[in-house]
Amino acid sequence: MGFSRTMQTRYQLLMALLFVAAIIYLENQIQRLEAARDKMEHVLATMQLHSLQVPQFRRSDEDLAKSNDQIVIYNRVPKTASTSFVGLAYDLCQRNGYNVIHLNTTRNSPIMSIQDQERFVTNVTSWNAKKPAFYHGHLSYLEFGRFGLPQKPVYINIVRKPLDRLVSYYYFVRWGDDFRPHLRRNKHGDSKTFDDCVEQGEPDCAPEKLWMQVPFFCGHAVECWEPGNRWALEEAKRNLVANYFLVGVTEELEDFVMLLEAALPKFFRGATSLFQQGGKSHLRKTSNKQEPSKETVRKIQRSQIWQMENEFYQFALNQFHHVVRRSLRRVNGELTPLGAQFFYEKIRPR
């Protein structure tokens, strides 16, 4: 009797071990299948991205002419990684068949006279020999519809945390950067740190110097350039949502590039891989930049102007993250653009 019970116990133990082994085996198989599925999704997503670059219908000569008529304007805010981003456009323009044109305003003024606004709008829309075109320059938002012309450009831009942008600019005009290290800037030789500047109440680090991203998106109205103007902040938000195709953030530049490649392949096909290669991702670095102290940060953040600029930055960041969530998906830990999520049906007449 004892021998029989022992054998029965051993048999039950063996079955239990076999059951556990079977569970482990099945779990391993499931993990392998999930990994294979993720890999397949990544391949399909890549194929879908490339399929966006191929027309699915025969296009008439008129349609082709319109596609070659496109204008992109990047009214770049200073010290937001704009040089790094523009470098991509210059590297891709010949390969993708478009023109890159830099708008250089007198003394880098972001505001144009009314006659220059009309000249610029007319030039951009009628310079057919340079279309499709990618324009970039330090220019505040300009509404083309005000001039009675049918063609409107595609606006894009990049914003940055306001204090980070100001600190970068403060040291840039004193020490330059590694892009053109021998060029002397207008504050060359001033060794005063940003902390010292804030402590001594100097104008170069005053809260008013933070007022930059709001007016660039607000436009040419006089209220836009009044530091701390609430109407300007709301107008900047409205323009960002209503009149900009896409606004990215310096801190997430690669996602911005990836979205542009998926949505505007005529201009940005190949931009993501070029950016990831590293040659353009950190093209310009400000020299001798020192991070501000916690006390300096607290002083700056108490100002109403910083609070308004930061409100605009957070608004832009939320909008950008919304686009990312709707347009990219994570596969094997990497973000990949979604393919087409719509199709046509019930087309009549047949």
TrEMBL record:
It comes from the Eukaryota. One of its GO terms (cellular component) is Golgi membrane. Keywords: Coiled coil, Disulfide bond, Glycoprotein, Golgi apparatus, Membrane, Signal-anchor, Transferase, Transmembrane, Transmembrane helix. Its main location: Golgi. It is a single-pass type II membrane protein. GO terms for molecular function: heparan sulfate 2-sulfotransferase activity. Pfam families: Sulfotransfer_2 (PF03567). The keyword Phosphoprotein does not apply. SUPFAM superfamilies: P-loop containing nucleoside triphosphate hydrolases (SSF52540). It is found in: Golgi apparatus membrane. InterPro entries: Heparan_SO4_2-O-STrfase, P-loop_NTPase, Sulfotransferase. Belongs to the sulfotransferase 3 family. This is Heparan sulfate 2-O-sulfotransferase 1. It comes from Branchiostoma belcheri.
